[in-house]
Design goal:
The structure is a homotetramer. The first copy, chain A, is built from 9 helices and 17 strands. Chain A has about 325 residues and is of the alpha/beta class. In chain A, strands 16-13-12-11-7-10-9-8-17 form a 9-stranded mixed beta sheet. In chain A, strands 3-2-1-4-5-6 form a 6-stranded parallel beta sheet, sandwiched between helices. The relative contact order of chain A is 0.15. Chain A starts with a strand and ends with a strand. The radius of gyration of chain A is 21 Å and the shape is globular. Chains in contact: A-B, A-C, A-D, B-C, B-D, C-D. Chains A and D meet through strand 16 of A and strand 16 of D.
Chain lengths: ~325, ~325, ~325, ~325
Amino acid sequence: MVNIAVVGYGYWGPNLVRNFQELADANVTSCCDMNPERLAQVKSKFPAINTTANYDDILNDPLVDAVVISTPVSTHYELARKAFEHGKHVLLEKPATASVAEAEKLVEMADKQKLTFMVDHTFIYTGAVSKMKEIIDRGDLGDLYYFDSVRINLGLIQRDVNVLWDLAPHDLAIMDYLVKEKPVSVCATGVCHVGNGHENVAYLTVYFDSGLIAHFHNNWLSPVKIRTMLVGGSKKTIHYDDMEVSEKIKVYDRGVDVSTAEGIRDVLVSYRLGDMWAPRLDVTEALRVMAGEFVGCIKTGRRPLTDGVSGLNVVKILEASELSIKQRGKEIKL
Amino acid sequence: MVNIAVVGYGYWGPNLVRNFQELADANVTSCCDMNPERLAQVKSKFPAINTTANYDDILNDPLVDAVVISTPVSTHYELARKAFEHGKHVLLEKPATASVAEAEKLVEMADKQKLTFMVDHTFIYTGAVSKMKEIIDRGDLGDLYYFDSVRINLGLIQRDVNVLWDLAPHDLAIMDYLVKEKPVSVCATGVCHVGNGHENVAYLTVYFDSGLIAHFHNNWLSPVKIRTMLVGGSKKTIHYDDMEVSEKIKVYDRGVDVSTAEGIRDVLVSYRLGDMWAPRLDVTEALRVMAGEFVGCIKTGRRPLTDGVSGLNVVKILEASELSIKQRGKEIKL
Amino acid sequence: MVNIAVVGYGYWGPNLVRNFQELADANVTSCCDMNPERLAQVKSKFPAINTTANYDDILNDPLVDAVVISTPVSTHYELARKAFEHGKHVLLEKPATASVAEAEKLVEMADKQKLTFMVDHTFIYTGAVSKMKEIIDRGDLGDLYYFDSVRINLGLIQRDVNVLWDLAPHDLAIMDYLVKEKPVSVCATGVCHVGNGHENVAYLTVYFDSGLIAHFHNNWLSPVKIRTMLVGGSKKTIHYDDMEVSEKIKVYDRGVDVSTAEGIRDVLVSYRLGDMWAPRLDVTEALRVMAGEFVGCIKTGRRPLTDGVSGLNVVKILEASELSIKQRGKEIKL
Amino acid sequence: MVNIAVVGYGYWGPNLVRNFQELADANVTSCCDMNPERLAQVKSKFPAINTTANYDDILNDPLVDAVVISTPVSTHYELARKAFEHGKHVLLEKPATASVAEAEKLVEMADKQKLTFMVDHTFIYTGAVSKMKEIIDRGDLGDLYYFDSVRINLGLIQRDVNVLWDLAPHDLAIMDYLVKEKPVSVCATGVCHVGNGHENVAYLTVYFDSGLIAHFHNNWLSPVKIRTMLVGGSKKTIHYDDMEVSEKIKVYDRGVDVSTAEGIRDVLVSYRLGDMWAPRLDVTEALRVMAGEFVGCIKTGRRPLTDGVSGLNVVKILEASELSIKQRGKEIKL
């Protein structure tokens, strides 16, 4: 039985408590939040959980094996650092940290102390993304050409970060999971319209040496909710539409066949039309699978699918994108 | 009656001949193409039209009032220049020219000689775009915030130009028509996968001084055909989906209301949810309306909706985007 | 404060308990079910609720003002009858009863004793249906011509009833709510494929004297989930698609204008094309609104939107449809 | 070379002329219509085609091998009868005739004289329907359970027939082609709202002895255009959406597995969820394929896919449906 303390009981905290609580081999023993009203809510729903406004109570509780941190990103580093220092495993909400330096230090600490360090990139645990992973790893797409992601809707405008820090972590984590090659540089553009100085519309290009190009479009002002991803390869292309009820993943056997003859003027391009296939997806709640992964990794010592390094990879791109966006699209090396 | 010569009878030429032929106040008197088979096709369908492989025959024919040029873009400038020198009105297929310098010279020539110079930005003559124009000009959207365009499909890969030169002219022309403010700079990214050295996937950001941001996504390799545009403003947002059969234009009365209080930390954002409205659209064939506009402008001397300057504006952005894309997203001033 | 007993804690019961519990002016005091495991679930989630497997405990509890019955339909009549005899208000899950005779008796009992008798036709309390009601009552559609409903999906095949008794109550209740005119007869067709003798695919036509025709298509075997309704009138038409995330209701200002001249051969029909409008809908959870309606009616004595008579009206059509379906579409008068 | 005369040059005639004209082994030699303006149109577009207002000119022309009849359905029988009497092959537009008796006589005449008798059920020649045929014939669906067709839109209201005679022939022809079993009876319901006495909204159930049930919904007043078909079987289900641009056919590997145990109360139903597959479809214009089939059958003597018997089968159901609809859904044996 893994004993868990949940730190931060705001928007996401109740979902974390519920999911860890329902695991057979985990137990939420305590919950920490600075807001007494929220702690009262925990108590009324889960009388057995200890509540506290003092994080030290968690750190010093020898029963607590692991902390699950769901607080504002600016506090992640300090909370996780202290947890590692007290020998506790850590799960961080996304994005992992507010800077690359912070993420690197946490990865290092966790490795040194052989503690589990995981980031809650929830989408990795959906049936849709795991099916994409399976298809790509099998080589069905051929060489990867492009990775195009759109995640836009009327969103809760964040006070302290721009729309990329808020929405792109989902998509960057998926890219980090699906694509083995490491990105080399980014260009980002965007604008702030609503007065808090943070971009609410943004576009991000990520370059790879192989010729793969990735692009992310995030927008907090769109009245239309779009969550799509196109992953195009030399053989096949995946279209992922998260707003679809059942056929979220479609694999198209269509593309362009190119045969180069003598010179550039003689490029022969022919179209290949073919079937589309929408595989059945696992519909287990992703948060449940994620919670199980954290507990399973703690018990076995294996590395999580979304370990600290994946969190670091996402933060690297976010940090670079912020530099680029402020310089109107200047390429920033990773 | 305006007498028209059509130059170039390839993919688009037959549509031009048919539409000009069916106007009450125009007459296609001749057709020029270097390919004798194509000229034979013209003769068999339209025995009354004179055919020639020699452009000089057109230039020297005093009966010809106007030439409609539908040839590869690299030839536009020379053909149009000669036509103006012979006192003939000119309609050019999009994009107008292969360079800004060429387009500027043609605009200057046409103005000096008071000849009609029009570019076939066909989409401007669709019911969908003219309805968008009406809505925006009425101020329904409020201040314009963003203009996001996606035009992707399995496309006919061009030998001599990249995907932006091929597909973006449609969308840039629409932006030029809908947005009064002039853009100030561009950043473009993209990659070539199919061996001809020209990008087949590309992303283009266009900046404006007011805070408006425009973005264009073009892709020749997508098995999914998407043609959408989001034009977001402070009050309302238009979603234009050209693949919809009947409701191509949807106006959303939804958005974010911002009231800034004392400091940045006190930005108050509230959501405004409201109705959606899909106006009835005129369904007259756009090419017919475009042909009528050209003939009407010749007869009355008024300036076309899509005059040489609009053609020039589009080429300015294309030329800058090519500079930017080769420098991995470097901002290029317009 | 209205004290409520929930009878039946199966699939739907937990939703009922939760929603009544969260009302400010209601209190779930007890819960009755024959399955001890389910009662244990109630206790663990809601320690303050009394549980019992004996319905008499509920009937004899003077604190209980009203019973909410969510048991198999064959038991509804007996349970409701006894509740009325003990002076308690009654809310029945749909369909109200297993026969017209039963529903009529319950309506009579409730009226005589001035008790609230309501049926949980939940859809009536959705934002979509209440908006349709508003539009129709305002006369926007003109004369009603047709009411076409499709509700098909891979469904939980019921043991004791056919697909009409299972799925059509939703749609028949909506029709009963939206259409003031009373239906006069029905024809139903359908087939059983899966061995329990009850039709799993069925079609039902409902005639009205005015010329309005209604039709219902229900199917438990469809891999595609469709929930649509078309309500067509002489002026406008509503399309209701319950699977749409946000624009569930669309009002089309399109139709056919008919002007009859001397003879039938001279009917002049012209098309009227116009805008489409998708009104903003209230998104309050329907079950919450329904629960509030029940409690509000008990407190004020007013008649519920979905009173016993509406439950009776639905059962009348279901009973007639079963007669018709067994006689291969024979018209059955209502 | 097969010489063809087209009789009737109204709405559909020009498409027939164009498609037969473009076949390599056919030649449209003459065209007959009672309207001189239409004949003038033929002459201007196709100077080589002889035009006449006198059908006898066609009948007596020894060069004419076959007549293609595209006139109002009430005239089909007389025109076809005379053509057979003059030894000419016949293609009739759908529906084949105005009555079963007429269709039977024509089938008999054609058989006796060994002439090709074909009905233009164009949809049979689409890539979508031929793919469905291939899938069903291969047994992929298992036993057929239901065939549900919806074809509704704002339609050209016909003066002399109801909406079933106008729209259902498409769908009945598809059913006749896909389903080997013969239907046994029909029930139809419908209403006329627009004053010409012919139903503009109609529903038709077709029974088969095996338990297969087919249903057709046709409506001339719907502002929403829907053209869908669900063909459900014990193993798989096809969803055909003709309004989809590319994935018109989707095959769902989902369904209900039933294992009957001792008694009806023990029917065990389990759900089978699985992949969806959208096969690539041939996109050749159906009318071209149909024209080729007619000419090919004339040349080889083989029976057309849509021969006179398929035309007769469709008319049998239409005639029975009209009897049923007038008797409010009474079952009519076929």
